[in-house]
Structure formats: structure tokens, C-alpha cells
Amino acid sequence: MGKKKEKVIDLKPEKISEEHLARLQQVVNKINELQFSIGGIEIQKHTMLHELATAQEGVSMMQNLLNDTYGTCNVNVKDGTIDRTEESDG
């Protein structure tokens, strides 16, 4: 009547193979490297956007100075000639 239960041995591995571990680490390290690089690029982008905004403010200031000095006009950036064809104040 009393059957003795056999102990079942779990044959599932407790660790992955060294080869799989090395490949997994390689892939994860590549992801980390790329994320770090992207972060550096984003910092450069942020800095450049601030520099662009500063340059645009400089253009705006120059436009105001030129308008005060020469009146409303378009200036050719290459040779400095003034084009008054769109001037509204005569």
C-alpha cells in the first residue's frame, strides 16, 4: 500500500553557459556604450542650441542697429549693399 515517492531531481541549469554569458554581456555593454554616446551628443546638441539662440539674438540686435542707422531696408550680407525696394516710409 505505501508506495515510496521518488525524489524528482530538477535538471534545469542554474546558470547560463559561459559562451552565452559572454555574448549577453557584449550586447548589454554595446547598448550601454551607445546610450552613453547618445547622452554626450544630446549635451552637445543642447549647447549648440544655446549658441544658436545667442547668435540669433545677435542678428536681431544688428537688424535693430542697422534699421536705426540706415532706416528700414534689406542689406546684402555678402557685399553690404542696401536694397530699399520694400521700404515703406519713402
Brief descriptors of the model:
90 residues; mainly alpha; two-stranded antiparallel ribbon; 1 helix; 59% helix; 4% strand; rod-shaped
Question: Could you please describe the fold and organization of this structure?
Answer:
The protein has 90 residues and is mainly alpha-helical. The protein has a two-stranded antiparallel ribbon. It has one domain (19-83). Strand 1 and strand 2 (82-83) form a beta hairpin. It has one helix at residues 18-70; strands at 74-75, 82-83. 59% of the residues lie in helices and 4% in strands.
Give the SSE layout.
Elements: H1 18-70, E1 74-75, E2 82-83
Antiparallel strand pairs: 1-2
In short:
With 90 residues, the chain is mainly alpha-helical.
SS-based structural class?
mainly alpha
Computed over alpha carbons, the radius of gyration is 35 Å
Mean pLDDT: 90
Shape verdict:
rod-shaped
Strand content: under 5%
Number of helices: 1
Helix-strand string? HEE
Domains (count): 1
Helix content: 55-70%
Strand order of the largest sheet: 1-2
Main sheet properties? 2 strands, antiparallel
For the termini, the CA-CA separation is 117 Å
Poorly predicted runs of 5 or more residues: none
> What is the total tally of β strands?
2
